[in-house]
Structure prediction request, 887 residues.
Amino acid sequence: MAKQQKQKKKVNKEARQRRGIFGSFLHWFDSHTDFHGDKPQAIFVPRKKPPAFGLSVAVTTFKLMLITILVLGFIMAGAVFGVARAFISTAPDLDVTEISDVSLSSYIYDSEGELITMYSGVQNRMWASIDEIPDNLKNAFIATEDARFYSHGGVDIKRIVGSFISNLTSSNIQGGSTITQQLIKNRMLTSERSYKRKIQEAYLALQLESKYTKDQILEAYLNDVNMGEGNYGVKSAARDYFGKSLDELTLRECAMLAGIVNAPTTYNPRRNYYVKNRPEVTNERTDLVLSRMQREGYITVDEYNAAKAEEVHIQETRTNTATGIAPDFVSYVIDDVVQAFIKQRGLENTRENRNAIENELRTGGYSIYTTLDQEMQSAVEDAVYNYDRYPKTAKSSDSVKRETNPDGSVTEIEQPQAAATIVDYHTGEVKAMVGGRKPPAGLKMLNRATSKLPVGSSIKPITVYGPALDAGMGAGTIIQNLKGAVNGWAASSSEKSYPTQGSVNGPVTMRTAIQKSLNLSAARVLMEMTAPTPTEGIENAVSYLAKMGIDTESSETTVQRTGAGIALGSSAYSTVEMASMFGTIANKGVYISPTSFTKVTDSNGNVILDGKALQQTNQVYQPSTAWMLVDMLETAVQSGTGSRAQVSGMTIAGKTGSNESKGLYFAGMSPYYSAAVWIGHDDYKSLANSTFGGAYSAPIFQRFMTTIHQEKGLQDKAIIEDSPESLGLVRATVCQVSGMKATDACTHDAGGLTPVTDWFKAGTEPTESCTYHMSLPICTESGKYATPYCPSTTGSASQVFVPSDSVLRNCDLSGLSWYHLTGASDFNYINNPDQFCPLHTMPGATLAPSATPSTDPSATPSAVIPSLPVFTNTPRPTNTPSTGTGN
Prediction:
């Protein structure tokens, strides 16, 4: 029997092979039906006659149709399988870094660690860990977007079938994508509507589920999802729409955020509340999310009802595009960080590299910890924005600058403009910055605080008097402030013979030259008194600028290697640079490069830039020089051109500046901070006549420095607390005419220019007695200089005799008859009868006709104009110096 069965199976197998697929199907069909078209059939009873012809045809046709359908089905299934296999084969490889690596906004913090603003690219994103995201928010998304998220393996077959049926029977198209599929689409695929994308999406979703946990997938999704208005991820959306952190969100706010995802533009709460005036669209969508949460068991009925009744406040202004706090400072710190990255990476400072790093900052999730002091920033903003005494422009038509925008609109900018910067010179930290009279419309706008602009006489302590003090001069050094060619001063047909702005009144001390901002004195010190030649004087000054971080060599330098450029401020510097250079003086001559940030960390909290480590420090001026500069600059504020910068109860030192009435400046320091203020026209147009930095820029300085020192409760103290003696300074009395060591004859100067006492570095004070003054007795009767024949004299007066190597020999002495270019032996009653007693002469001498005895016993000779110290014997050339800049 077994052998027969085995033989039967073999026969059946061979028969099946002969029949093939279709034959086998017919055999199966015949064996499972009661009707056989080629055999007698029996229904209840055996048939006695053959079936009707029509029925036979119908049955055969049905068989053929069924066979055809099945064949086509197999063919279609094979084709679909082949296409699907092809789509899958062309799908990108699952790269988990594509899921986890997303563009993250960077955060910018102030000096206290408070968030100032975010810096983002097209996508404003703040990463939140899964533990940071509240359950209500997670559940709202799951209930709305993927109710079976925790049970499916990446693809929800039940949802796909349901969506297919719903799409066939309803006009509302529903999607079948799970949260996992949406994440794959957002991070690895395009948004095209095609079967190819859907198949690849499902395939990759299944793979992702095998590599990531549900929490990891949900975390990545909630940080990547488009929430409208440039917000990506729930954290940035919560801050932007509600001004809240995630842990502060209410149930309704969570539901509202979850409702946005389906159509970010349609359900955008800000747009619907404030632009479209249709809040019901957002509210109805929010209620739908709440109902799904209640249906899925995430909230109770009571919670659902309470959330429906809750009122939500939507922020009207976008936080990710608003200018926010200190926009000028933020722009500056971004540039500062970019430059730091370029140096750290050894890159060329090209526009392409700067743009690439800036884009990295927008998307890299960095944290930038800045030096900004918000209290100080507010004080500077108030002083600049609300100042009501800005000067007028020379032409009324220049009071507004008009700029045409790309869209054809016109922006009007009031003129003149202003800028200010404050630096803590003990650390180099930039504490506050304002780049215009109004807040800018956004970041990366024109920032006048970092623009390089001419500074006028404010530069004199930096480039002229500081180097001169280091070279051996002192606060009491005498400078000739008389008309005359300045050695090496370049001239052109359009320039005057020498700097004329500022008083031209004879010899002055360095202190007076700074106090009164005398241009001619600054020119003479730079070109004639600091170094052996004018060129060496200029190059020496340039070297000081370089020590303080000023670009002096590149093609983009704004430093002019001319007398006017170095001594009178026609070179251009930013307010940051000026505040830093004046801070160098206050910091005992030590320069600390300005910085706007203390550190930069990556998205994992690792420090990648240390602001302190990047700073440079140089001893620029000798400590004794710095002390004398501060002391003289205090005089300039107490009783000089900077008097309007005085802060009640606080020591202030500083210097005014103006540049041909086109720019007004004040730079100065307190015991705590240094600052610079600029006022001027954006197009360098002239301001009204008689406008000086002391009248306009100094009051702005005074206003914000007063507020800052009062609000911080800072106590007054010396700017440099070291005693002058400890720094090697001594006081010396010098002749105010010659600058040499004063003699008794100097104290009797007929013009009242008595000796002065001031500071010098020990060993540099004058030791040679004055050879200019000579005391001559006064005739009691005539009141003039006595001749050898006058019977009696009353007191004496001094006359000045200019040595042959004196700088006075090259000055314009017209009208100054009391300056004698002859030797003392040639000054007598015979050669100068008008100044000597006409009553008592050599017997037989003829009295000059005009000479009559004086009846006033107190009469004295004409006033004597003092001369210069002799620092060089080099005769001056006949060329004429250029026009100087203002005070």
About this structure: The mean pLDDT is 82. DSSP finds 26 helices and 27 strands in the chain. The domain at 98-309 is CATH 1.10.3810.10 (Penicillin binding protein transpeptidase fold). The first helix runs from residue 2 to 31.
